[in-house]
Write a structure and sequence with these properties.
Length: 260
């Protein structure tokens, strides 16, 4: 059985890496890709894949919103969530996900997922229970083992690496697949491949992904500047007073956080 798969992730490096790993597996055919939830639904409708790998935090529509629509429309496809964040595991199973992978995805773990997809298809054909309790327990154990928070982060400044306290990070921005981090009086680049991966190693209550290209330390915001359509710009506490745009969903979160 060839598993026809679609890969959905708003960060191209993460999407490319997952596609590379899938291409190393037998009987897996990548029939489409998408960089956001809206395009994902179109690709799924056109390709009718057996399996969809979904990032969770995406512009337009989240991975959960895509999965819920697939359920409502009774689309016959399996879903695997691929994310840098461990806190969504339970919710993933509420929308009938087969599995939940943490970035960076390990080749051996991905192979287990493909085996699980085949097992689920066989159970479904036989009328079995596709959401076994022991399956959820295995995934939760895997997630627990991967949880990590870093007190210091390595930044490449010039030709050397410097370790900076995570609390000193003001913001990080992604441009041309390079993550630039401003921390205190330093500006350097991170070895993390995506902002999701960087954020997953930091305190999620402090570091907010306010935009697909920006991660900010909410404690390092100097000023909130009203912008168009009731959105905001965040003026940061770096020497340049950098202004960072907020996405609509994060603007709502900020209003609730500050009771605006």
């Amino acid at each position: 059985m060839v598993i026809r798969s679609v890969v959905v992730d708003d960060e191209k490096p993460a999407r490319n890496e997952l596609c590379f790993l899938l291409e190393q597996l037998d009987d897996v055919d990548i029939v489409g890709q998408a960089s956001n939830g809206v395009d994902a639904m179109q690709v799924i409708r056109e390709q009718k894949p057996d399996l969809v790998f979904l990032d969770i935090q995406m512009p337009g529509r989240t991975g959960f919103e895509v999965a819920r629509e697939l359920l409502l429309r009774e689309v016959d496809t399996s879903v695997v969530f691929v994310t840098a964040f461990d806190q969504y595991a339970i919710e993933a199973f509420e929308v009938n996900a087969v599995d939940y992978l943490l970035k960076p995805v390990e080749a051996a773990r991905l192979a287990q997922t493909i085996s699980r997809v085949r097992e689920r298809a066989a159970e479904s054909d036989a009328g079995g229970n596709v959401l076994a309790d022991d399956q959820l327990e295995r995934v939760l154990q895997h997630v627990t083992k991967r949880q990590v928070r870093r007190d210091r982060v390595a930044l490449k400044v010039g030709e050397s690496f410097q370790l900076v306290p995570s609390g000193d990070i003001i913001y990080a921005s992604l441009s041309d697949e390079v993550i630039t981090v401003v921390a205190g009086g330093l500006t350097g680049t991170s070895n993390f491949r995506t902002l999701d991966e960087l954020q997953s190693n930091l305190d999620p209550e402090v570091f907010w992904r306010v935009h697909r290209s920006h991660l900010v330390n909410i404690n390092k915001v100097k000023e909130i500047v009203p912008w168009f359509s009731r959105n905001y710009l965040l003026k940061m506490k770096d020497p340049k007073g950098t202004e960072i745009p907020m996405s609509r969903s994060q603007t709502k979160r900020l209003r609730e956080y500050l009771s605006l």
